[in-house]
Amino acid sequence: MPDFIANFELTPWWILGIKLAVVLTIVPLGSLIGGYALHKELGHLQHRLGPMHAGGFHGWAQTLADGIKFILKEDIIPAKADAPVFKFAPVMIYVPIVLLYTVIPVDSKLIVEDLDVGLFFLLAVGSIPVIGTLMAAWSSANKYALIGGLRAAAQLIAYELPIVLSAAVVAMLAGSLSVIDIVEAQNWAFVIWPPGIGLIAFLIFLAGAMAEMTMPPFDMPIAESEIITGPFTEYTGMRFIFSFFGAEMAHVVAFAGIAATLFLGGYKPIVPLEFLEVIPGFVWFLLKTMFMFFLMTWIRFTLPRLREDQLQKFAWKYLIPASLVLILAAGAWVLYAPEALWH
Amino acid sequence: MALDSKDIKGVRSAYDEGKLVPGGGDALPPPPANPGSLHIDHDKLRKQRKTTFGIGLLKGMAVTIKHLFMRNTVIEYPDEKQDLSPRTRGVIALKEENCTVCMLCARECPDWCIYIDSHKETLPAKREGGRPRKRNVLDRFAIDYALCMYCGICVEVCPYDALFWSREFEYAEYDIRELTHEKERLSDWMATVLPPPELELGAELPGQPSPVAAEPAAAAPAPAAAPAPAATGTTAQSPSERVEKESAPSAAAPAAASTPAKPDKAAGGAASAEPRPEASDGVASTPPGTAESREQKAPLSTQEGESALPEAAQVRVPAEAPRPVALEKTEDPQAVYDKVLQEQKDKGSSPQVAEARAKVARVKAERGIKRGPTPVEVDKPVPSAPTKHSEEESS
């Protein structure tokens, strides 16, 4: 009998319950806080204020108010739309994003499930929302939604590879697919050491992640001034939240956490200095996640949208060859770098 | 078949010659080898740009991050309100007592958003044997602010100052019918109208044709000489000019060019240059504003014997009321008739034309209108323009 079946243990139901509760709390909470942070940051980058009114003090309850508004909206499904697929598409998009949260280590013991193949799980599960987007596009019975969906499909598939390949670089450097091992392998965060390889991998991963989440400059599928919301044009109310806005926020926070784990050192201090050890791990993790979120929002606001052909060209002609070369370089490093240089 | 490059090979445009560029042909990249095809040499463009790859992105990000940390200048309406300038166009207010229901505003409104109803009332005569007065009474005056585009034509056009701009803008309604403001509401808005702005230095006071002179003493000798028909040099000048001139100079020293315009225009466009040649009268009554600008530019003829009085002393006040023009005749109309007739005959005009012209001249002399081309009022002196004293020879 295969090992894993013989050694199969069912986690006690109450532990499962706690883990489920944690995830189901963190995800919406993260989306709410992330959404508020997004609005405020975008506002101040644009030399304005962002939400100030909702909830009194600098509009802290803005996303909450938005959420309530969306819940109260009428649920409209176009007459010619393919109803079952239409309804299932947001599920297909949102559930994998929630699953992403299960393998992000907030601290060395604060992880929902430390899978041995954590990284692989992340990448695999992170690809499922692509199908959800396509389902939304086709079932909407709207040609502009379809155009957006096809653009999305092309873009998301193109940018899967840079993400996977740069994550592969990290896995090679760490020697394991388990996220905890990856964090433990970073005395000096991978973005700093090995020099060059880590930084370029980080940048490629960043570009790929922003494209996966259809954030500007890669927001052709949504391209709001051109095709409204692309594949999600026909969605209203909570379906809209679960397929588009909420999903995007949850996705961004998740990827911020993943990037912090893979490249910035996770719950460990970035550089192994004594005085930095005082700060607890989860604080480090939160700081890094917030920094990543800030960085992605900053890039998102500043850069103009790429045209579809520029987008594809960037992925296929620049990012993918670069990440392939990077794998070669990482492999050479792992094999031939002397022990003294490690960490 | 699309235009082939060999069809237009050999055509050299100004662009190719380098003529369209200030620096010459070298400032531009060389034109493409095939004039017919569009060829963008990306490498060349990039080399000419002389920047590293990706710098633009980083510069852009630097700009936005700078704004993140800048002090914010947002005025948080409705907690904070902006300081509006006094000329801000908000709502239009109505001063009912000034309105005579002339309907100009309703007529001129491009949107037809002013609704006016009125009726005529007859009031009894004020005194014995007088005529009963008819008055317009305003029944309804409404402005539909759903249509109003705040152009201000009604405010401009109102001859009786019954409409005023106010700075109020917060009168949004839930029902569009409540956006039509009736008389009462429009009158209420008058409370928010700002007082009129201060007059500038030297501006005309409202309600008077020209301000009072500053120095009547210096003007004393001059008006005495003015009415006397001058024998020399002013024979050709008509009394009307002198009359204009007399009223024109009653300008206060600081008052500028606005004053001469009015009396001049009133007399039918006689130029402000008109009074100049008459300075020999002793009435150095050039309107100060124009005189100031003209003194430097157009030298006055010495035959007039220009007075050397400084500008301030050239302010004159009419010592007596201007007399009706027709009573003053400088020339014998019959003499004019004969003279003109002779001139025309000498010129070779036909007898009927000559007679007609002579008659016209006689009538003009009777009426005291100067013969010759109608003088053009010049606001600013042009040094090369003929000055008025040249007209003395024309008649």
Give the % helix of chain B.
25-40%
How many helical stretches of chain B?
Answer: 12
Query: What overall form of chain B do the CA principal axes indicate?
Result: flat
What order do the helices and strands of chain A follow?
Answer: HHHHHHHHHHHH
Which two chains form the greatest contact, residue counts included?
Answer: A-B, 13 and 13 residues
Oligomeric state of the chains in view: heterodimer
Computed Rg of chain B: 35 Å
Instruction: Catalogue the unreliable spans of chain A.
Output: none
Note down, in words, how this protein is organized.
The complex is a heterodimer of chains A (about 350) and B (about 400). Chain A contains 12 helices and no strands. Chain A has one domain. With about 350 residues, chain A is mainly alpha-helical. Chain B is of the alpha+beta class and about 400 residues long. Among the domains of chain B are: about 110 residues, 2-Layer Sandwich (Alpha-Beta Plaits); about 90 residues, no CATH class; about 50 residues, no CATH class. Chain B is built from 12 helices and 5 strands. The longest helix of chain B is centred in the C-terminal third of the chain and has 17 residues. The radius of gyration of chain B is 35 Å and the shape is flat. The C terminus of chain B is likely disordered. The chains are: A mainly alpha (about 350), B alpha+beta (about 400). Chains A and B meet through helix 2 and helix 11 of A and helix 3 of B.
